[in-house]
Amino acid sequence: MSPFFIYSFLIMAAEATEYIVSPAPGDEFGVSVAGEDVQIVEDTVIPYWQFLLWLAAMHILSVIDILLCLTKFIFAILGFKIAGNANSVGTLKRKRIFSLIETNPGIGTIKIANDMGLNRGTLRYHLKTLEAENLVEAYSDRGKFRYFQNNSTYGEKEKRVISALQNEMTRKIISKILKEECNTNGDLARTTGISKGAITWYMKQLKESDLIEENQMGKSTIYSINPVYRDTIEKEVHEVF
User: Fold this and answer.
1) Quick one: 4 exposed, middle or buried, by C-beta within 10 A (0-12, 13-18, 19+)?
2) What's the CA gap between 41 and 108, in Å, rounded?
3) pLDDT at residue number 69
4) CB 92 within 8 A of CB 100
5) Kind of pairing, strands 144-149 and 212-217?
């Protein structure tokens, strides 16, 4: 309980109390009236200046209590404003991240972090918030997460094809096979400028994604686009190039 309320209570109690003084039944000081044991106790009188000092102390404490309450109230308002500003900044960043994902479907976390200038931890927080709000979704592409606009925007085929086309060399390989410019390891290596071993690695990734089929023709392995994904690949490759 604050000193201010204690002080007010004491004053009201003092004002409401009535004192009735009646004469002692006997005339002699300290003499028993009915045979009871009588002990004389000395009166203790509090000096008036001490009483005034006590009142002043109670008043000061009540003022301090009021000031503390006002201070807490002010800090609460300031804290609310700071939290509100921080939340606004976070909302603005998420809007920019969403816009980046919307215009670059299948974008990876590294690309988002670099374009936004965010560290991985902060980016993960914002991406999780966007997922919880059902604005974006994460698609796992061989252990790497790529992000798309919400579930209703892209189908499974589109997400698989778009994720594969995020890699520049993969785009070149798929485009050349699609246009039937070349369809063997040797031809692809010559036209793309990388080794046959590297081509073999890329083709392994594309076969695991089910985008490419291979057929053996003598000693040569012939690659072709999986008919299930051909229309989607043609559409996406055309948009990219």
Assistant:
1) middle
2) 91
3) 74
4) no
5) unpaired
Statement to judge: residues 198 and 140 lie in one domain: no
Instruction: Give 132-190 pLDDT, tens digit per residue.
Output: 999 999 998 878 899 999 877 889 999 999 999 999 999 999 999 998 777 888 899 99
State whether 166 and 227 are in the same domain: yes
Instruction: Work out the angle at residue 77's Cα, subtended by the Cα atoms of residues 73 and 80, and round it to the nearest 5 degrees.
Output: 135
What domain range includes position 103? 89-149
pTM for this entry: 0.59
Reading the block at residue 80, the tokens are 């609310």
Q: Say how many CA atoms lie within 13 Å of 62 toward its Cβ.
A: 13
Distance, in Å, from the CA atom of 139 to the CA atom of 158, rounded to the nearest integer, reads 11
14 found inside a domain: no
Strand order across the beta sheet in which 144-149 lies: 107-108, 144-149, 136-141
Provide the token pair at 21.
């003084």
* Res 152: pLDDT: 75
The last residue of one of the domains, among 149, 183, 199, is: 149
175 with 108, same domain: the answer is no
pLDDT value, residue 95: 93
217 vs 197: CA distance, rounded Å: 19
Question: Helix, strand or coil for residue 26?
Answer: coil
